[in-house]
Amino acid sequence: QAVITMKSLCKFYEMGDQVVHALDSINLDFKLNDYAAIMGPSGSGKSTLMNIIGCLDTPTSGTYELNHQSVAEMDDDELARIRNREIGFVFQTFNLLPRLNCLRNVELPLIYAGVPPEERQERAREALIKVGLGDRITHKPAELSGGQIQRVAIARALINKPSIILADEPTGNLDTATSHDIMDIFGSLSEAGNTIILITHEEDIARYTRRVIRLRDGKIESDTRP
Ligand code: ADP
Ligand code: ADP
User: Fold this and answer.
1) What residues contact 217, with CB distance under 8 A and at least 6 apart?
2) Start and end of every ABC transporter domain (predicted)?
3) Residue 213: which of 22, 46, 43 has the closest Cα?
4) Which of 73, 101, 165, 172 lies at a CB distance of 3.0 to 4.6 Å from 92, suitable for a disulfide?
5) Which of 26, 48, 221 has the most ligand 1 atoms within 8 A of CB, as the residue to mutate?
């Protein structure tokens, strides 16, 4: 069943008297367990598409349904609510707080959500165990390798039990072996029932996914399941 459905979705930007068609009539579905890479040259619309999928932005026209909720007409408060419930974000730069240990970094989203301390810590510990960091719970980011730091960031993205994980160049700052570990973690998360969508410009990284969507000039150039 589709968790994401986009129909005739457009995003236009007005630049003086010019209109940039960042996304031009996109029709796209994502299903539960999809593990997809979004590729394409610079300016092809990858970030715009991820921002819309992640409910950080809304389309100019067309429809976007996320778990059967119509997102296209939502206001900022509704977007924030659906984002917190449905989406986990992982970035190239890990965005961890350096003074906090792993457990504290991972539980941060739950503090904002008003979850009581014992439950927060239990859930943060579970998420860290899930990404193989059960023995690094009290370490601070500076005491971890790049790959371990990215795993903490993934654990934090998982903490609200989102259905969808969005990742923007999640292996961009990692060496090859570590990148492959991270891609394997995403692979097991997708098998466990998450929808994983990531932007990458590396064919070697895209190979780890089960679906490759290529954008060009705001349109889908190809959508393959190798
Ligand atoms: P990519 O992530 O593939 O590099 P983007 O989604 O960032 O592509 O951009 C797609 C197109 O939309 C580009 O032509 C870009 O210049 C334009 N664009 C993106 N964001 C804005 C914005 N906030 N204002 C104006 N134009 C934008
Ligand atoms: P690009 O992929 O074009 O280099 P970035 O990776 O800097 O762009 O960011 C992609 C988008 O994700 C941006 O439009 C930004 O609004 C959003 N973003 C970046 N960091 C965060 C964050 N920590 N929390 C929420 N949104 C973010």
Assistant:
1) 21, 24, 44, 45
2) 4-226
3) 46
4) 172
5) 48
State the pLDDT at residue 95. Answer: 84
Q: Give the number of other CB atoms < 10 A from CB of residue 100.
A: 14
Q: Among candidates 117, 91, 184, 106, which has minimal Cα distance to 141? A: 106
pTM of the model: 0.88
**pLDDT tens, residue by residue, 145-174:** 999 999 999 999 999 899 999 999 999 989
Percent of the chain with pLDDT over 70: 100
pLDDT of residue 167: 96
Q: How remote is the CA of residue 49 from the centroid of ligand 2, in Å?
A: 12
Q: Quick one: pLDDT band at residue 57, thresholds 50, 70, 90?
A: very high
Pocket of ligand 2 (CB under 6 A): 47, 51, 56, 89, 91, 95, 168
Distance CA 137, CA 8 (A): 45
